[in-house]
Amino acid sequence: MASIVILMGSNSDEEKVAPCAEILGRLGIDFYLTVTSAHRTPERTARIVAEQEKAGAKVFICAAGMAAHLAGAVAAKTVRPVIGIPISGTAFGGMDALLSTVQMPPGFPVATVACDKAGARNAAWMAAQILALGDDALRARITAERAKMAADVEAVGNEMLKKYS
Fold first, then answer.
1. Which end of the chain is more exposed for a tag (fewer CB within 10 A), N or C?
2. How confident is the model at residue 103 (pLDDT cuts 50, 70, 90)?
């Protein structure tokens, strides 16, 4: 059973979404990752949501560019949390995807993060934090990761002080 489902609108999104999978793996969270399209394969999208929800999925993460309707299509099929990662890929630099992802009708929210890799990272962290509401061990792993991030910044800061003092 995968706790988190990651859906990409295209296989060309893989490089930008990979950091999400890496963080979830590092935190020991099972995930299901595949490609489906709100427009090209709407039946597949609906089927995946239903199957994964029945299998116990708790959070859906959807990455899509341009019209970026994948997250909204998923939100229409589940009451589980949906996190949208807008993907850049047009002359608009991802702004089109960002606006498509964030502007949802009342009752069908999509938590929207930044575009591309930065957003993929935060989608993983947000999904993990949602799961951690009922999982003390996961909450401890997240807390340990944050402590490591803080220690890394401290170490880099001290190196800079030494270098320029």
1. C
2. very high
